[in-house]
Amino acid sequence: MDLKNKIESLLFISHKPLSVGELAKLSDGERSAVESVIAELTAEYQDRSAGLEIINLEDKYQMAVRPENSQVVSKLLNTEMSGELTRPSLETLTIVAYRGPLSKAELELIRGINCSLILRNLLIRGLIEARDDKEKGAIVYQITFEFLKHLGLGSVVELPEFEKLNRNNNLEKLLQGLVSGTAEQEIKEEIKDSLF
């Protein structure tokens, strides 16, 4: 895959602005080449009057909806915000509630699937939030006060069987990479059964 495709994919999927340095590191590209690609992509989106554009502030870039499309996008977001959560969204939210804060990689290890769009939807709804974790060197996700208010809870420890599910030894082994193969699949099934 060429650098241009990598940068476009990263900008599309990221829920936060990315710096040139971050883009270069993630794409294994040179900083100057990344800057050139961003300029090229920005011009392409502008020239063809695309529904998306690349915006920047200082050294950070993000893909965004063109302002003239904001009303139609708002209709969709309002529908997403007011509609019921899907089963995959509920599973993801439950794992974040019981095990958070955890990184996208840890979450995907537990669920076994890509969680990018699910995380985006939960972020939009205000049920989870993202923050940088210096210790893990990654963005981690955790529930919000809005989530607690929605459930009428004063604290996350008021969730049913919180202590048991928050300190699951098999899950710890899975996250630390101490199991693989059949054992990994069995642990994932056990976790799903206990949470859902």
Condensed summary:
The protein is an alpha+beta fold and 196 residues long. It contains eleven helices and six strands.
Keywords:
14% strand; 11 helices; three-stranded antiparallel sheet; 196 residues; Arc Repressor Mutant, subunit A; alpha+beta; 6 strands
Overall description:
There is one protein chain. This protein has helices at residues 3-13, 20-27, 31-47, 70-82, 87-99, 104-111, 116-125, 145-151, 162-166, 169-175, 181-195, and strands at residues 18-19, 52-57, 60-65, 102-103, 128-133, 138-143. With 196 residues, the protein is of the alpha+beta class. It has two domains: 3-67, Arc Repressor Mutant, subunit A (Orthogonal Bundle), CATH 1.10.10.10; 84-195, Orthogonal Bundle (Arc Repressor Mutant, subunit A). Strands 1-3-2 form a three-stranded antiparallel beta sheet. A three-stranded antiparallel beta sheet has the order 4-6-5. Helix 2 crosses helix 3 and helix 5 packs across helix 7. It starts with a helix and ends with a helix.
Give the tally of β-strands: 6
Approximate strand percentage: 5-15%
**Topology pattern, helix = H, strand = E:** HEHHEEHHEHHEEHHHH
Let me know the average pLDDT. 80
Tally the structural domains. 2
- Tell me the number of helical segments per DSSP (H or I, 4 or more residues long): 11
- The separation of the N and C termini measures 39 Å
Query: Which CATH architecture of the largest domain?
Result: Orthogonal Bundle
The profile of the biggest β sheet is: 3 strands, antiparallel
Q: What would the CATH topology of the largest domain be? A: Arc Repressor Mutant, subunit A
Which parts are unreliable, with pLDDT below 50 for 5 consecutive residues or more? none
Radius of gyration: 19 Å
Task: Please identify the structural class as seen in this structure.
Answer: alpha+beta
The largest sheet has its strands arranged as 1-3-2
Helix content: 55-70%
3D shape: globular
CATH class of the largest domain, named Mainly Alpha
Q: At the fourth CATH level, what is the homologous superfamily of the largest domain? A: Winged helix-like DNA-binding domain superfamily/Winged helix DNA-binding domain
